[in-house]
Amino acid sequence: MSALRKRAYGLLAFFLAIVHNVFLIYHVDVYVYSYKVDKASFWLGEIIFLLWNSINDPLFGYLSDVDLVSENEKKCHAEDLVLRRLKSIRIYGPLLCISFFLFWTPVLPIWSHFVVGICLYDSFLTVMDLNMNSLLADISSSIEERTALSKSRSLGNIVASISVFISYAVWDQSSLRYFKIFCFCISIISGVGFYITSSILISQFELKSSLSEISPRSSILGSIKMPSLKPAAIVAALSYLCQLCSMKNFLYFVMMSLIQVFHCHFNSSFMPLFVSLLLKDHFPSYFCPLLMGLSFLLPHLNNFYFLRLCQKQGTYHVIQGLLVIKFLLAFAVYIADVNLLWLIAIFILSNRIFTEGICRLCDLVIADLIDQDFVENERKVTASAFFYGTAALLTKPGQSLAPMIGTVLLTVAAGSEDIRARTEQEALTQEDFKSYCLVLTGVPMICSIVQILIWKKFDLKGGKLRYIKSVRQKQELHSI
Protein backbone atom coordinates (compact mmCIF):
# COMPACT_ATOMS: atom_id res chain seq x y z
CA MET A 1 0.00 0.00 0.00
CA SER A 2 1.38 3.41 -0.97
CA ALA A 3 2.27 5.93 1.71
CA LEU A 4 0.10 8.49 -0.09
CA ARG A 5 -3.04 6.44 0.50
CA LYS A 6 -2.34 6.04 4.20
CA ARG A 7 -1.55 9.75 4.68
CA ALA A 8 -4.62 10.78 2.71
CA TYR A 9 -6.87 8.45 4.71
CA GLY A 10 -5.48 9.99 7.89
CA LEU A 11 -6.15 13.49 6.53
CA LEU A 12 -9.76 12.61 5.74
CA ALA A 13 -10.15 11.38 9.32
CA PHE A 14 -8.60 14.64 10.59
CA PHE A 15 -10.99 16.86 8.62
CA LEU A 16 -13.96 14.83 9.86
CA ALA A 17 -12.84 14.78 13.49
CA ILE A 18 -12.11 18.50 13.92
CA VAL A 19 -15.78 19.33 13.34
CA HIS A 20 -17.41 16.22 14.80
CA ASN A 21 -15.53 16.40 18.13
CA VAL A 22 -16.91 19.89 18.69
CA PHE A 23 -20.41 18.80 17.68
CA LEU A 24 -20.38 15.87 20.10
CA ILE A 25 -19.32 17.97 23.08
CA TYR A 26 -21.47 21.07 22.65
CA HIS A 27 -24.68 20.26 20.75
CA VAL A 28 -26.57 19.44 23.97
CA ASP A 29 -25.12 22.33 26.00
CA VAL A 30 -25.79 24.92 23.28
CA TYR A 31 -29.48 24.13 22.85
CA VAL A 32 -30.40 23.09 26.41
CA TYR A 33 -28.34 25.56 28.44
CA SER A 34 -27.59 28.46 26.04
CA TYR A 35 -30.70 28.56 23.83
CA LYS A 36 -32.87 27.22 26.70
CA VAL A 37 -34.84 24.57 24.79
CA ASP A 38 -37.22 23.08 27.35
CA LYS A 39 -36.82 19.43 28.32
CA ALA A 40 -40.05 18.24 26.64
CA SER A 41 -39.11 19.88 23.32
CA PHE A 42 -35.56 18.56 23.60
CA TRP A 43 -36.86 15.03 24.15
CA LEU A 44 -39.24 15.31 21.20
CA GLY A 45 -36.40 16.58 19.01
CA GLU A 46 -34.16 13.69 20.12
CA ILE A 47 -36.92 11.16 19.36
CA ILE A 48 -37.32 12.58 15.85
CA PHE A 49 -33.54 12.49 15.47
CA LEU A 50 -33.46 8.89 16.78
CA LEU A 51 -35.90 7.78 14.09
CA TRP A 52 -34.10 9.60 11.27
CA ASN A 53 -30.68 8.62 12.57
CA SER A 54 -31.69 4.94 12.46
CA ILE A 55 -33.37 5.08 9.05
CA ASN A 56 -30.80 7.09 7.12
CA ASP A 57 -27.92 4.62 7.50
CA PRO A 58 -29.52 1.67 5.70
CA LEU A 59 -31.27 4.09 3.33
CA PHE A 60 -28.05 5.79 2.23
CA GLY A 61 -26.23 2.46 2.23
CA TYR A 62 -28.92 1.08 -0.07
CA LEU A 63 -28.79 4.09 -2.39
CA SER A 64 -25.03 3.77 -2.56
CA ASP A 65 -24.75 0.02 -3.16
CA VAL A 66 -28.12 -1.12 -4.52
CA ASP A 67 -26.59 -2.11 -7.85
CA LEU A 68 -23.89 -4.11 -6.05
CA VAL A 69 -26.33 -6.32 -4.14
CA SER A 70 -28.29 -7.13 -7.29
CA GLU A 71 -27.73 -10.73 -8.29
CA ASN A 72 -27.35 -9.79 -11.94
CA GLU A 73 -24.62 -7.22 -11.34
CA LYS A 74 -21.32 -8.04 -13.05
CA LYS A 75 -18.28 -8.36 -10.90
CA CYS A 76 -16.31 -5.12 -10.61
CA HIS A 77 -12.77 -4.38 -9.49
CA ALA A 78 -11.83 -3.06 -6.03
CA GLU A 79 -10.47 0.20 -7.49
CA ASP A 80 -13.90 0.95 -8.93
CA LEU A 81 -15.49 0.67 -5.51
CA VAL A 82 -12.81 2.89 -3.97
CA LEU A 83 -13.38 5.52 -6.66
CA ARG A 84 -17.09 5.48 -5.92
CA ARG A 85 -16.46 6.13 -2.23
CA LEU A 86 -13.95 8.91 -2.90
CA LYS A 87 -16.25 10.77 -5.28
CA SER A 88 -18.99 10.72 -2.64
CA ILE A 89 -16.55 12.10 -0.05
CA ARG A 90 -15.55 14.94 -2.39
CA ILE A 91 -19.21 15.96 -2.75
CA TYR A 92 -20.57 15.42 0.75
CA GLY A 93 -17.55 16.43 2.83
CA PRO A 94 -17.98 20.17 2.13
CA LEU A 95 -21.76 19.85 2.58
CA LEU A 96 -21.16 18.31 6.02
CA CYS A 97 -19.07 21.32 7.00
CA ILE A 98 -21.74 23.78 5.83
CA SER A 99 -24.42 21.96 7.86
CA PHE A 100 -22.07 21.93 10.88
CA PHE A 101 -21.71 25.73 10.86
CA LEU A 102 -25.43 26.35 10.23
CA PHE A 103 -26.34 24.18 13.24
CA TRP A 104 -24.95 26.78 15.66
CA THR A 105 -26.63 29.77 13.97
CA PRO A 106 -30.45 29.50 14.19
CA VAL A 107 -32.40 30.90 11.24
CA LEU A 108 -35.62 29.13 12.30
CA PRO A 109 -37.39 29.06 15.66
CA ILE A 110 -34.96 27.45 18.13
CA TRP A 111 -36.66 24.06 18.48
CA SER A 112 -37.34 23.76 14.75
CA HIS A 113 -33.74 24.71 13.95
CA PHE A 114 -32.47 22.13 16.44
CA VAL A 115 -34.45 19.31 14.81
CA VAL A 116 -33.74 20.35 11.21
CA GLY A 117 -30.10 21.16 11.95
CA ILE A 118 -29.24 17.94 13.77
CA CYS A 119 -31.00 15.77 11.15
CA LEU A 120 -29.30 17.61 8.28
CA TYR A 121 -25.88 17.36 9.90
CA ASP A 122 -26.37 13.67 10.66
CA SER A 123 -27.45 12.97 7.07
CA PHE A 124 -24.15 14.24 5.65
CA LEU A 125 -22.22 12.66 8.54
CA THR A 126 -23.85 9.30 7.76
CA VAL A 127 -22.79 9.46 4.12
CA MET A 128 -19.24 10.36 5.16
CA ASP A 129 -19.06 7.60 7.79
CA LEU A 130 -20.39 5.00 5.36
CA ASN A 131 -17.82 5.89 2.73
CA MET A 132 -14.90 6.28 5.15
CA ASN A 133 -15.63 2.92 6.76
CA SER A 134 -16.26 1.25 3.41
CA LEU A 135 -12.83 2.35 2.21
CA LEU A 136 -11.33 0.38 5.08
CA ALA A 137 -13.00 -2.79 3.79
CA ASP A 138 -12.67 -2.08 0.03
CA ILE A 139 -9.03 -1.01 -0.22
CA SER A 140 -7.72 -4.34 1.09
CA SER A 141 -8.75 -7.52 2.92
CA SER A 142 -5.32 -7.82 4.56
CA ILE A 143 -5.33 -7.45 8.34
CA GLU A 144 -1.95 -5.67 8.17
CA GLU A 145 -3.09 -3.11 5.59
CA ARG A 146 -6.39 -2.48 7.35
CA THR A 147 -4.48 -1.97 10.59
CA ALA A 148 -2.14 0.47 8.81
CA LEU A 149 -5.14 2.47 7.57
CA SER A 150 -6.66 2.42 11.06
CA LYS A 151 -3.38 3.76 12.47
CA SER A 152 -3.42 6.60 9.94
CA ARG A 153 -6.99 7.34 10.92
CA SER A 154 -6.02 7.38 14.59
CA LEU A 155 -3.14 9.75 13.84
CA GLY A 156 -5.54 12.09 12.05
CA ASN A 157 -7.89 11.97 15.04
CA ILE A 158 -5.01 12.70 17.42
CA VAL A 159 -4.08 15.89 15.57
CA ALA A 160 -7.77 16.82 15.33
CA SER A 161 -8.02 16.82 19.13
CA ILE A 162 -6.59 20.34 19.04
CA SER A 163 -10.10 21.52 18.16
CA VAL A 164 -11.27 20.34 21.61
CA PHE A 165 -8.58 22.34 23.43
CA ILE A 166 -9.40 25.50 21.46
CA SER A 167 -13.17 25.06 21.72
CA TYR A 168 -12.99 24.86 25.52
CA ALA A 169 -10.97 28.10 25.56
CA VAL A 170 -13.55 30.01 23.47
CA TRP A 171 -16.63 28.40 25.02
CA ASP A 172 -18.91 30.71 27.00
CA GLN A 173 -22.42 29.51 27.76
CA SER A 174 -23.81 33.05 28.03
CA SER A 175 -22.23 34.37 24.80
CA LEU A 176 -21.57 32.15 21.76
CA ARG A 177 -19.92 34.82 19.59
CA TYR A 178 -16.34 33.54 19.72
CA PHE A 179 -17.52 29.94 19.68
CA LYS A 180 -19.40 30.57 16.42
CA ILE A 181 -16.35 32.25 14.87
CA PHE A 182 -14.27 29.23 15.82
CA CYS A 183 -16.87 26.86 14.29
CA PHE A 184 -16.84 28.91 11.06
CA CYS A 185 -13.04 28.65 10.81
CA ILE A 186 -12.84 24.89 11.33
CA SER A 187 -15.73 24.30 8.91
CA ILE A 188 -13.83 26.17 6.18
CA ILE A 189 -10.59 24.27 6.90
CA SER A 190 -12.41 20.94 6.91
CA GLY A 191 -14.51 21.56 3.78
CA VAL A 192 -11.55 22.67 1.66
CA GLY A 193 -9.47 19.79 3.03
CA PHE A 194 -12.07 17.18 2.10
CA TYR A 195 -12.25 18.45 -1.47
CA ILE A 196 -8.49 18.66 -2.08
CA THR A 197 -7.55 15.36 -0.40
CA SER A 198 -10.28 13.31 -2.08
CA SER A 199 -9.43 14.89 -5.46
CA ILE A 200 -5.78 13.82 -5.10
CA LEU A 201 -6.80 10.25 -4.28
CA ILE A 202 -9.30 10.14 -7.14
CA SER A 203 -6.58 11.18 -9.57
CA GLN A 204 -4.31 8.41 -8.32
CA PHE A 205 -6.93 5.68 -8.57
CA GLU A 206 -8.16 6.86 -11.97
CA LEU A 207 -4.59 6.75 -13.27
CA LYS A 208 -4.17 3.22 -11.95
CA SER A 209 -7.49 2.21 -13.42
CA SER A 210 -6.63 3.64 -16.87
CA LEU A 211 -3.39 1.64 -16.91
CA SER A 212 -5.16 -1.63 -16.15
CA GLU A 213 -6.03 -4.11 -18.86
CA ILE A 214 -9.33 -5.09 -17.26
CA SER A 215 -12.19 -3.57 -19.23
CA PRO A 216 -15.53 -4.17 -17.42
CA ARG A 217 -15.01 -1.12 -15.18
CA SER A 218 -16.40 1.58 -17.39
CA SER A 219 -19.92 1.31 -16.01
CA ILE A 220 -18.73 2.22 -12.52
CA LEU A 221 -16.04 4.80 -13.12
CA GLY A 222 -18.31 7.62 -14.11
CA SER A 223 -20.12 9.98 -11.82
CA ILE A 224 -22.29 8.52 -9.11
CA LYS A 225 -25.28 7.09 -10.88
CA MET A 226 -28.90 7.24 -9.81
CA PRO A 227 -29.92 4.17 -7.84
CA SER A 228 -32.19 1.61 -9.36
CA LEU A 229 -35.58 1.38 -7.69
CA LYS A 230 -36.83 -1.49 -9.83
CA PRO A 231 -38.64 -4.31 -8.00
CA ALA A 232 -35.78 -6.72 -8.77
CA ALA A 233 -33.28 -4.42 -7.08
CA ILE A 234 -35.50 -3.98 -4.03
CA VAL A 235 -36.01 -7.74 -3.76
CA ALA A 236 -32.24 -8.24 -4.00
CA ALA A 237 -31.70 -5.68 -1.23
CA LEU A 238 -34.29 -7.36 1.01
CA SER A 239 -32.68 -10.72 0.33
CA TYR A 240 -29.32 -9.23 1.31
CA LEU A 241 -30.81 -7.92 4.57
CA CYS A 242 -32.28 -11.33 5.38
CA GLN A 243 -28.93 -12.99 4.80
CA LEU A 244 -27.22 -10.51 7.13
CA CYS A 245 -29.81 -11.01 9.85
CA SER A 246 -29.31 -14.77 9.62
CA MET A 247 -25.61 -14.32 10.52
CA LYS A 248 -25.35 -14.94 14.27
CA ASN A 249 -22.04 -13.12 14.51
CA PHE A 250 -23.58 -10.05 12.89
CA LEU A 251 -26.44 -10.03 15.40
CA TYR A 252 -24.12 -10.50 18.40
CA PHE A 253 -21.92 -7.70 17.13
CA VAL A 254 -24.75 -5.18 16.65
CA MET A 255 -26.10 -5.92 20.14
CA MET A 256 -22.69 -5.29 21.68
CA SER A 257 -22.11 -2.25 19.46
CA LEU A 258 -25.51 -0.71 20.28
CA ILE A 259 -24.51 -0.57 23.95
CA GLN A 260 -21.07 0.72 23.00
CA VAL A 261 -22.50 3.55 20.89
CA PHE A 262 -24.76 4.50 23.80
CA HIS A 263 -21.82 4.56 26.22
CA CYS A 264 -19.56 6.54 23.87
CA HIS A 265 -22.19 9.23 23.33
CA PHE A 266 -23.10 9.31 27.00
CA ASN A 267 -19.45 10.13 27.74
CA SER A 268 -19.23 12.75 25.00
CA SER A 269 -22.49 14.48 25.92
CA PHE A 270 -22.04 14.62 29.70
CA MET A 271 -18.30 14.58 30.31
CA PRO A 272 -18.12 18.44 30.38
CA LEU A 273 -20.92 18.42 32.97
CA PHE A 274 -19.25 15.79 35.17
CA VAL A 275 -15.93 17.64 34.98
CA SER A 276 -17.61 20.93 35.89
CA LEU A 277 -19.71 19.51 38.75
CA LEU A 278 -17.19 17.19 40.36
CA LEU A 279 -13.76 18.68 39.67
CA LYS A 280 -13.88 22.35 38.65
CA ASP A 281 -13.88 23.85 42.17
CA HIS A 282 -11.13 21.56 43.46
CA PHE A 283 -8.37 21.93 40.87
CA PRO A 284 -6.50 24.84 39.19
CA SER A 285 -8.33 26.65 36.36
CA TYR A 286 -6.20 25.03 33.66
CA PHE A 287 -6.91 21.48 34.86
CA CYS A 288 -10.43 20.99 33.45
CA PRO A 289 -9.61 22.24 29.90
CA LEU A 290 -6.50 20.05 29.96
CA LEU A 291 -8.52 17.00 31.08
CA MET A 292 -11.14 17.63 28.37
CA GLY A 293 -8.52 17.93 25.65
CA LEU A 294 -6.63 14.85 26.81
CA SER A 295 -9.87 12.86 26.88
CA PHE A 296 -10.13 13.32 23.12
CA LEU A 297 -6.40 13.05 22.40
CA LEU A 298 -5.34 10.00 24.41
CA PRO A 299 -7.97 7.53 23.11
CA HIS A 300 -6.61 7.92 19.58
CA LEU A 301 -2.99 7.87 20.74
CA ASN A 302 -3.64 4.75 22.81
CA ASN A 303 -5.39 3.21 19.81
CA PHE A 304 -1.96 2.64 18.20
CA TYR A 305 -1.22 0.20 21.00
CA PHE A 306 -4.65 -1.44 20.72
CA LEU A 307 -4.16 -1.93 16.97
CA ARG A 308 -0.76 -3.53 17.56
CA LEU A 309 -2.41 -5.86 20.05
CA CYS A 310 -5.06 -6.70 17.45
CA GLN A 311 -2.35 -7.89 15.07
CA LYS A 312 -0.85 -10.15 17.76
CA GLN A 313 -3.88 -11.28 19.78
CA GLY A 314 -6.81 -10.72 17.44
CA THR A 315 -9.49 -8.01 17.55
CA TYR A 316 -11.95 -10.21 19.44
CA HIS A 317 -9.62 -10.77 22.40
CA VAL A 318 -8.56 -7.11 22.57
CA ILE A 319 -12.20 -5.95 22.72
CA GLN A 320 -12.94 -8.61 25.34
CA GLY A 321 -10.04 -7.39 27.48
CA LEU A 322 -11.08 -3.75 27.17
CA LEU A 323 -14.63 -4.57 28.25
CA VAL A 324 -13.30 -6.30 31.38
CA ILE A 325 -10.97 -3.38 32.17
CA LYS A 326 -13.84 -0.91 31.69
CA PHE A 327 -15.92 -2.77 34.28
CA LEU A 328 -13.07 -3.15 36.80
CA LEU A 329 -12.19 0.56 36.66
CA ALA A 330 -15.79 1.64 37.19
CA PHE A 331 -16.25 -0.86 40.04
CA ALA A 332 -13.03 0.32 41.73
CA VAL A 333 -14.20 3.95 41.73
CA TYR A 334 -17.70 2.91 42.83
CA ILE A 335 -16.41 1.25 46.03
CA ALA A 336 -13.70 3.86 46.69
CA ASP A 337 -13.98 7.01 48.79
CA VAL A 338 -15.75 9.70 46.74
CA ASN A 339 -13.44 12.31 48.28
CA LEU A 340 -10.52 10.94 46.27
CA LEU A 341 -10.97 13.54 43.54
CA TRP A 342 -7.76 12.58 41.75
CA LEU A 343 -9.16 9.05 41.36
CA ILE A 344 -12.38 10.41 39.84
CA ALA A 345 -10.35 12.54 37.41
CA ILE A 346 -8.27 9.51 36.37
CA PHE A 347 -11.43 7.45 35.93
CA ILE A 348 -13.13 10.08 33.74
CA LEU A 349 -10.07 10.13 31.50
CA SER A 350 -9.50 6.35 31.42
CA ASN A 351 -13.20 5.68 30.84
CA ARG A 352 -12.98 7.77 27.66
CA ILE A 353 -9.80 5.98 26.57
CA PHE A 354 -11.15 2.43 26.85
CA THR A 355 -14.68 3.25 25.67
CA GLU A 356 -13.49 5.09 22.56
CA GLY A 357 -10.84 2.42 22.01
CA ILE A 358 -13.54 -0.22 21.66
CA CYS A 359 -15.53 2.01 19.28
CA ARG A 360 -12.51 2.42 17.00
CA LEU A 361 -11.90 -1.34 16.87
CA CYS A 362 -15.52 -2.02 15.88
CA ASP A 363 -14.70 -0.90 12.32
CA LEU A 364 -12.18 -3.75 12.06
CA VAL A 365 -14.82 -6.21 13.28
CA ILE A 366 -17.30 -5.00 10.65
CA ALA A 367 -14.62 -5.36 7.97
CA ASP A 368 -14.14 -8.99 9.10
CA LEU A 369 -17.91 -9.54 9.04
CA ILE A 370 -17.99 -8.20 5.48
CA ASP A 371 -15.37 -10.81 4.58
CA GLN A 372 -17.46 -13.53 6.22
CA ASP A 373 -20.57 -12.42 4.34
CA PHE A 374 -18.59 -12.26 1.08
CA VAL A 375 -17.28 -15.85 1.48
CA GLU A 376 -20.26 -17.63 3.03
CA ASN A 377 -22.85 -16.08 0.69
CA GLU A 378 -20.55 -16.41 -2.36
CA ARG A 379 -20.88 -12.78 -3.41
CA LYS A 380 -19.31 -11.35 -6.54
CA VAL A 381 -18.55 -8.01 -4.88
CA THR A 382 -18.67 -6.52 -1.38
CA ALA A 383 -21.49 -4.04 -0.77
CA SER A 384 -19.61 -2.42 2.11
CA ALA A 385 -21.66 0.76 2.45
CA PHE A 386 -24.91 -1.20 2.53
CA PHE A 387 -23.39 -3.52 5.17
CA TYR A 388 -22.27 -0.60 7.36
CA GLY A 389 -25.66 1.05 6.89
CA THR A 390 -27.50 -2.07 7.99
CA ALA A 391 -25.28 -2.37 11.07
CA ALA A 392 -25.86 1.30 11.89
CA LEU A 393 -29.65 0.81 11.61
CA LEU A 394 -29.42 -1.39 14.69
CA THR A 395 -26.72 0.52 16.59
CA LYS A 396 -27.35 4.22 15.94
CA PRO A 397 -30.37 4.45 18.30
CA GLY A 398 -27.79 4.40 21.10
CA GLN A 399 -26.59 7.81 19.90
CA SER A 400 -29.98 9.40 20.61
CA LEU A 401 -30.78 7.35 23.69
CA ALA A 402 -27.59 8.55 25.43
CA PRO A 403 -28.59 12.23 25.93
CA MET A 404 -32.21 11.28 26.62
CA ILE A 405 -31.47 8.69 29.31
CA GLY A 406 -28.52 10.74 30.58
CA THR A 407 -30.65 13.84 31.21
CA VAL A 408 -33.16 11.72 33.14
CA LEU A 409 -30.48 10.09 35.30
CA LEU A 410 -28.79 13.41 36.08
CA THR A 411 -32.10 15.17 36.75
CA VAL A 412 -32.99 12.46 39.26
CA ALA A 413 -29.52 12.69 40.82
CA ALA A 414 -29.74 16.49 41.09
CA GLY A 415 -33.41 16.71 42.04
CA SER A 416 -33.73 19.61 39.61
CA GLU A 417 -34.52 20.17 35.93
CA ASP A 418 -31.73 22.71 35.41
CA ILE A 419 -28.65 21.05 36.87
CA ARG A 420 -26.25 23.85 36.00
CA ALA A 421 -28.45 26.59 37.47
CA ARG A 422 -28.96 24.66 40.68
CA THR A 423 -25.27 23.98 41.21
CA GLU A 424 -24.40 27.62 40.49
CA GLN A 425 -26.90 28.83 43.10
CA GLU A 426 -26.26 26.16 45.76
CA ALA A 427 -23.17 24.43 47.04
CA LEU A 428 -22.81 20.80 46.00
CA THR A 429 -23.69 18.65 49.03
CA GLN A 430 -22.02 15.35 49.85
CA GLU A 431 -25.21 13.50 48.90
CA ASP A 432 -25.32 15.27 45.52
CA PHE A 433 -21.68 14.37 44.95
CA LYS A 434 -22.37 10.69 45.70
CA SER A 435 -25.41 10.71 43.41
CA TYR A 436 -23.41 12.09 40.47
CA CYS A 437 -20.62 9.57 41.11
CA LEU A 438 -23.20 6.78 41.09
CA VAL A 439 -24.35 7.84 37.62
CA LEU A 440 -20.75 8.28 36.46
CA THR A 441 -19.74 4.74 37.48
CA GLY A 442 -23.08 2.91 37.21
CA VAL A 443 -23.51 3.46 33.47
CA PRO A 444 -20.15 1.88 32.46
CA MET A 445 -20.59 -1.01 34.92
CA ILE A 446 -24.01 -1.99 33.58
CA CYS A 447 -22.94 -1.50 29.96
CA SER A 448 -19.78 -3.59 30.30
CA ILE A 449 -21.49 -6.51 32.11
CA VAL A 450 -24.11 -6.88 29.37
CA GLN A 451 -21.49 -6.46 26.63
CA ILE A 452 -19.19 -9.14 28.08
CA LEU A 453 -22.05 -11.66 28.17
CA ILE A 454 -22.98 -10.91 24.54
CA TRP A 455 -19.40 -10.82 23.22
CA LYS A 456 -18.67 -14.32 24.52
CA LYS A 457 -21.07 -15.70 21.88
CA PHE A 458 -19.20 -14.06 18.97
CA ASP A 459 -17.10 -16.75 17.22
CA LEU A 460 -15.49 -15.02 14.20
CA LYS A 461 -12.01 -15.47 15.62
CA GLY A 462 -9.05 -17.83 15.56
CA GLY A 463 -9.17 -20.59 12.95
CA LYS A 464 -12.55 -19.56 11.57
CA LEU A 465 -11.36 -16.01 10.89
CA ARG A 466 -8.11 -17.28 9.31
CA TYR A 467 -10.10 -19.52 6.97
CA ILE A 468 -12.37 -16.63 5.91
CA LYS A 469 -9.33 -14.42 5.26
CA SER A 470 -7.55 -17.06 3.19
CA VAL A 471 -10.58 -17.66 0.95
CA ARG A 472 -11.16 -13.93 0.48
CA GLN A 473 -7.52 -13.24 -0.41
CA LYS A 474 -7.45 -16.15 -2.90
CA GLN A 475 -10.48 -14.67 -4.66
CA GLU A 476 -8.80 -11.26 -4.75
CA LEU A 477 -5.70 -12.81 -6.39
CA HIS A 478 -7.84 -14.55 -9.01
CA SER A 479 -9.57 -11.26 -9.87
CA ILE A 480 -6.28 -9.46 -10.64
From TrEMBL:
Keywords: Membrane, Transmembrane, Transmembrane helix. It comes from the Eukaryota. The chain crosses the membrane at residues 9-28, 91-108, 154-171, 177-202, 250-271, 283-306, 327-348, 433-455. It holds the Pfam family MFS_2. This is Transmembrane protein 180. InterPro entries: MFS_trans_sf (IPR036259), TMEM180 (IPR040035). The lineage of its organism: Eukaryota, Metazoa, Chordata, Tunicata, Appendicularia. PANTHER family: TRANSMEMBRANE PROTEIN 180.
